[in-house]
Amino acid sequence: MNAQLINPIKNALVSVLTMMAQVDPKVGKPKDKLDNLAPGVVTGIIDLEGEQARGSVAISFSKEVALDITNRMLRMELTEIDDQVKDMVGEMANMVAGGAKREMEEDGYDFKLTLPTVLSGDSHEINHRVHGPKIILPFKVASGNFYIEICFKK
Q1: What is the mean pLDDT of residues 116-128?
Q2: Which of 8, 21, 24, 93 is a Cys-bridge partner for 72, taking CB atoms 3.0 to 4.6 Å apart?
Q3: How confident is the model over 29-46, as pLDDT tens digits?
Q4: How many CB atoms lie within 10 A of CB 75?
Q5: How far is CA 145 from CA 37, 41, 113, 136, in A?
Q6: What does pTM read for this prediction?
Q7: Do the Cβ atoms of 21 and 104 come closer than 8 Å?
Q8: Taken in order 2, 34, 139, 64, is the CA torsion positive or negative?
Q9: Which CATH fold topology does 3-153 show?
Q10: Under the phi-then-psi rule, with left for phi > 0, alpha for psi from -120 to 50, and beta for the rest, what region is 34?
Q11: Which of 69, 81, 83, 79 is nearest to 146 (CA)?
Q12: Using CA atoms, how far apart are residues 145 and 154, in angstroms rounded to an integer?
């Protein structure tokens, strides 16, 4: 998959989490993703549609990371995945896609974003609307691990 599509997403995620939640995410090595099983318990997914490429980005959080980030952003002490946490995950997908879109425009890509969808529960599936190669980027913060799944078709 093209680094011009992956790096802006990674950069936007790091920027959003650093500014909004005061965490320092460390990125791991990207891998091909061959199944549809979400690695976390709550996932925000958003589509990017354009003439040059179509794709989607999913951010999947473990319970611990979703709660930590939500508590930091909202200055609350939530202990369960509820509607506020799901709203934060959807907004996180929206902010990351928006930030990535701005950076991708510098490389000549023009995308429109859809509204984010949030999925939750153990063993939920991430079904991208486009059929193309998928990669998964692992991230680590103090409270645990989370993942970005990226799927693009040119």
Answers
A1: 94
A2: 21
A3: 999 999 999 999 999 999
A4: 7
A5: 16, 12, 26, 12
A6: 0.92
A7: no
A8: positive
A9: Chemotaxis protein chec (3.40.1550)
A10: alpha
A11: 69
A12: 30
